[in-house]
Amino acid sequence: MKSNYEFEWKGVMPAVTTQFDREGNLDLNSFEKNLLAQINAGVHGLILGGTLGEASTLNEEEKLILLKKALKVADNKVPVILNIAEQSTDSAIRNVKNAEKNGANGLMVLPPMRYKATEDETIKYFSDIANSTSLPIMIYNNPIDYKIEITLDMMDKLKGFSNINAVKESTRDITNITRMINRFGNRFSIFCGVDTIAMESLVMGAHGWVAGLVDAYPEETMAIYTFIKSNKIDKALKIYRWFLPLLELDISPQLVQNIKQCEVATSLGTGYVRKPRMSHSGEERKRIQKIIEESMYTRPDVSDYKELL
Domain 11-308 carries which CATH code? Predict the structure, then answer.
């Protein structure tokens, strides 16, 4: 069931969470509820199997179950993109082919995992993947967490692949957006991958936002993006300032637990994580809950953004 769904790399694309029940099994009903909330809010795509999706705890069968469920829920309203994060080229290509065969609309691809590949090895890794599929690809550039930086010179060597279309920019250096635009124009769509600098990145010309807190707050996230792209910066800034204490929960090794605790507060998730992760308890849970409760108490009405969609 290969995909022939064409889409534009732009807008808000949630890095969606995987919903589990108390025993750690997939909870597809809760997964569907969250996806529908994202789609109804107006997001532009769904990205499965990232860190927030707890991909490292999922087997290949479970990933395909989630992919097929998401494709059914999306119903061609938005693209469904599968994350590829593997230790070997062969494993990556096998997963890419499975994703394409089972209907994925696109891919987000990380550099090789665990091994800190050289520049030439990283370029060859991405090249081999691009040559193995017709699916559009977003390169994930996150040297802070994954220790491999995809430099502009490396992107220059990858620009010849017509299906490498986008970059998830997570270097934390906002000026990198301007450097990319100055060098490549609109050759690559640039997505901010760090919630706490999303507004700044969008104002500087980023085409989209791979978001985390959107999983619990889809309308607020969409409102910020929509108002910025409609040149209503003051309206976006007011929401963004309210949102920042929550967005800071995304830049933590425990971002999955943090965001899932937020999902419980907004009735968009079960809150359960899969081992070895453990849900927050004690003082840390109280600290996160205090941030959530204070934000919920002052939660703004953002519904007017929908008039601009």
Answer: 3.20.20.70
